[in-house]
Amino acid sequence: MDERDKQLTHKRGFGVSTVYETLRNEIIELKLAPGSAIDEQQLSDRFALSRTPIREALVRLAAEGLIMTLTNRATIVSNIDFLRLSEFFDALTLMYRVTTRLAAANHTPDDIEKIRSLQKAFEEAVDRRDVLGMISTNRDFHVAIAQAGRNRYYVELFTRLLDEGRRILRLYYSSFNDVLPRQYVGEHEDMIQAIINRDLLQADALASAHADQIVSQIRSYISADSRQSGDLSL
Amino acid sequence: MDERDKQLTHKRGFGVSTVYETLRNEIIELKLAPGSAIDEQQLSDRFALSRTPIREALVRLAAEGLIMTLTNRATIVSNIDFLRLSEFFDALTLMYRVTTRLAAANHTPDDIEKIRSLQKAFEEAVDRRDVLGMISTNRDFHVAIAQAGRNRYYVELFTRLLDEGRRILRLYYSSFNDVLPRQYVGEHEDMIQAIINRDLLQADALASAHADQIVSQIRSYISADSRQSGDLSL
DNA sequence: GATCACACTTTTGTCGACAAAAAAAATACA
DNA sequence: TGTATTTTTTTTGTCGACAAAAGTGTGATC
Fold it and tell me: What fold does the segment set B82-232 form as a domain?
């Protein structure tokens, strides 16, 4: 496939992680469609590696839930489970809250600097009307807040949820409008201020509202979309 | 090593999962000491499998954080990080709360039956003064509650945290006394009742108190222990 | 006696091959 | 024509081998 991938992986031990990261990105960016089959042989050719390191990368992805591997049968990219979306939203909202709250409690000056620069990147993406950029810089912004909170369990789960969110948003990003992202920039600013002030309650409240905002936005995209497909199926 | 392990894994595809589950248990039960090195060759002999399936099992364990694999160097059983214990307690407490709360909201009659039977198993372990049994049945009890809550993200994180807790408790289980386990039985009963009544606030409050109870118990064991080793280092 | 360089051993990451299992294709039969 | 059965092809799980790193031991040098 992509010739750039080849020959980049010829230092021992870098093979698996390169394959892992490449595939991970492609799954999150929907370059690999949910439900589509993954061919080990094909990947083996593409990365110029034998099937052994490819398989180890796939095992890692499976452990993260990004792919599903049916024993002795094909392995496929995980589907986005619209029936269980409320579980996702519930966990996402909770993680927004606890990470922002903890960031208010535990941040250092370095953390603030990093958060600020990522917020700036988000703002620039909004100015450019670069929807894909908005999605990924928004994710980075919140991961940085989580890291400032200093709880690896939350960071890990939140990262997973945000990346799953990226997949969902990519499905609907065409319908992004201009008003909401502007509003998010403001909400982010307020959150940063609450974190700096070490105001846990305010940080929690803002994160909660921010999460609700995003959740209802995604919900509206989905229901609008299912109305369309509902029409088609009549 | 253990001859029972051999030849049990001779159906295609069962190799990795058998190795994975066996090692996972041994790590959690501290049969494999934290920090000790893992020898692929040795495991290969023990399970009568080649190194390839062994490695895939190790990759899975690494993804779960139970082992650490340093590239081109040895892989070791993860250490228990006493410096970051507060992160662990914080996440554990939060998961106790949200899973119990969700169980109150979403449980079915089948869930209650399962939770009840596991609570009975816990009670019996307490009656037998079987500390190891108490640790594992307590874990199963709370996992069942989490499953009744129907949020796979919480179930996964909570399971991981409870199993990490099993490791820590095993370090100190000699100092278990009789009073607290009795108290836990009562607290469990109250939690079941709150869940049945679909009283979310009560479920949350009980879970919160229960978590605090357990956390402070573990904390007291650890500080008692570090006082001892503090004496030794003088 | 301690430090360094070099040979040697062990361990890890990767490879190509092969057999079991599933999927697909071909055939037989109603 | 449609279904059941056999054969062929593809794919997956496992194996033994080998080369690159890292670890270990030995001797030389100061």
Answer: Four Helix Bundle (Hemerythrin (Met), subunit A) (1.20.120)
